[in-house]
Amino acid sequence: MALLDWVVRAIYLSISFLAHSWSSGRLEAMIRFFRAKVRTPVSDHVRESEAIRQQLGAHLLLGLEIFIAADIISSVVSPSWDKVGILAAIVAIRTVLSYFLRREVRQTKDG
Question: What is the pTM assigned to this prediction?
Fold first, then answer.
């Protein structure tokens, strides 16, 4: 049982580490935004801002989905009804956020 606990914790830590990819995406979007404000002509600001928003949205979606997986795995380690209830609420909130964020990214890409 100790081996299984160790394996699950290792998986949880690796997924949590991957979840920080959204931080790097956020940093990259900020750099691109400031660079666009300084370097691009005023007429291209809107187009560049939309491209940055799409990239940031993709990173946020990835981070939210990885955080959901990490929460599910962490509840496997020590299941209790309190943790399951909290997990259900967190998953519901993150799923709704992911849905609307994905919808907005799709709308900006299509239109």
Answer: 0.63
